[in-house]
Amino acid sequence: MGTMTTTAVTTETPVVGFDQVSKVYGTVRAVDGLSLRLHPGETVALLGPNGAGKSTTLDLLLGLKHADTGEVRVFGTSPREAIVAGRVGAMLQSGGLMDEVTVEELVRLACNLHPKAYGVSDVLARAGITQIADRKVNKLSGGQAQRVRFALATAGDSDLIVLDEPTTGMDVSARQSFWATMREQADQGRTVLFATHYLEEADAIADRVLVLHRGRLLADGTAAEIKAKAGARRISFDLDGDIDETALRGLPFLSSVDISAQTVRIQSTDADATVHAVYGLGLYPRNLEVAGLGLEQAFVAITAAEEAQQS
Ligand SMILES: Nc1ncnc2c1ncn2[C@@H]1O[C@H](COP(=O)(O)OP(=O)(O)OP(=O)(O)O)[C@@H](O)[C@H]1O
């Protein structure tokens, strides 16, 4: 019995496609020739120092701003079409919430506007704001307002959820439950894209990390890949007696040295060679530890290297 086999030639439409996109404000290139593809089910963190172009990128993706050059596609259509079709839910950084309406009224409005809306009470419950449903929106604390914004972003069944610094102002437990909810969304096959300054969140939650700097993509990979890209490793040890700081600063492959009391902390691009040279100085390091960089340090190393190259 012959079985028909068909070779599936799936040219998967990316969830988001940026093709050589630039956005200029006067003399500032907020986004500079950015090309990017996001795929279904990915949880993607967008990192970058202040002014790197994160918000502008999200605004372009949501059709709130238009590219000067290049093309932005969302599910193969224009951002506007994708939003009108209810495929995108968004939570913006400072999106003003309407005054003088209650939380429930506002959520109801968002549900009415969404082509694939969930029930209002479900949306309130998922965002953890059932208790404050009758509160006026302009009477909320910062963290509560963030939860309401989150409710608006998840008022319906969207395939892509875009979040600009979603957990700013949330306390630890609000943050944890927020990310638990976001994970559920991703597990159901949705794509989640979030901009953040909390690198530990990116490390814990994202399966892909984008590092933006001056509107350009400096790194794109898993958190582990980004850490590896930064190249450096951390070395720490204790020394007895007087510490010869000059000798330590002359060690090979250093990117930084920090000496406090008897503890030496070094960042090195070749940890083996550096440690070898420490012994070469005739020193006897105690409690020697060599570790990879955290995402935060990797991020600082990558963006600092780029700054140095440009200046
Ligand atoms: N409406 C605007 N007019 C002029 N310049 C702007 C405007 N919006 C953004 N910019 C500039 O574009 C660059 C990118 O800004 P953007 O807000 O996208 O960065 P960001 O990465 O989101 O920063 P942050 O982490 O501080 O929120 C910055 O230099 C900013 O000053």
From TrEMBL:
InterPro entries named among the record's database cross-references: AAA+_ATPase, ABC_transporter-like_ATP-bd, ABC_transporter-like_CS, ABC_transporter_ATP-binding, P-loop_NTPase
Mode of membrane association: Peripheral membrane protein
CDD domains: ABC_DR_subfamily_A
GO MF annotation list: ATP binding; ATP hydrolysis activity
PROSITE patterns: ABC_TRANSPORTER_1, ABC_TRANSPORTER_2
Any one annotated GO CC term: plasma membrane
Keywords per UniProt: Antibiotic resistance, ATP-binding, Nucleotide-binding, Transport
UniProt xrefs under SUPFAM superfamilies: P-loop containing nucleoside triphosphate hydrolases
Entry annotated with the keyword ATP-binding: yes
Highest taxon of source: Bacteria
Claim: Nucleotide-binding is one of the keywords in the record: yes
One of the GO BP terms on file: response to antibiotic
Domain ABC transporter: 16-239
Locations listed in the record: Cell membrane
Protein name per UniProt: Sulfate ABC transporter ATP-binding protein
